[in-house]
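W.,

You were right to be curious about this one. When I first looked at the sequence I had no strong expectations either way, so I just let the prediction run and decided to look at it fresh. Below is the sequence, 192 residues in total, followed by the output.
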Amino acid sequence: RNAELYACTSGIQKAERTLEKRDYDGALRLFKALQKTALSKFDERLALMRQAETYRRAGKLNQAEHILSKLLRSRKDIDREQRAKIAYKHARVVIENNREDQGESLMKQVTQVFPNTIFGHRSFTYLRGRIIARDPAEFATYCQEQYKHNPKSELADNYLYESALIHFRKKNSRDDTIAAGLYKKVLANWRF
């Protein structure tokens, strides 16, 4: 077995267990050590992301936001899925830090820029709950705008379906007509 790899993975496991025990100072020390001994830039970013998560859980949202903002500004060697994850987590921290409008705007950017990633889907789901609770019609409009902006994304069917469902639930002939048209688009564009 590769001793260097074992040392790295055992360190990650120890840091994660420490975080789960809510020993935030201990977890930060361990994640910072992992950052210094990282075998690659990817591993270094993961250690930084875990530091941000530790700060978030400890309620130190400014520190978490600072790390995530710095990671987003770094353009080197970050694959699309990891960048989407960083952007999503950054938006969540901004929302938790009582800047909900800014965080929601950032979350919308994640959905727009990374629609074909896991975190694009997560941001859509997160926005769905927030916006529908506030104003279902606003979410229907948002979905229609997103569909027009990116009709080929993996989320396109979701945009159409969610908008149609909101119109359908209004139970009037005008909205039923809109819903029917949107449902037809869903069926015409459906991807399996």
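Here's what jumped out at me. The chain has a mean pLDDT of 91. And, maybe more interesting for your project: The two ends are 42 Å apart (CA to CA).

Coffee later to discuss?

I.
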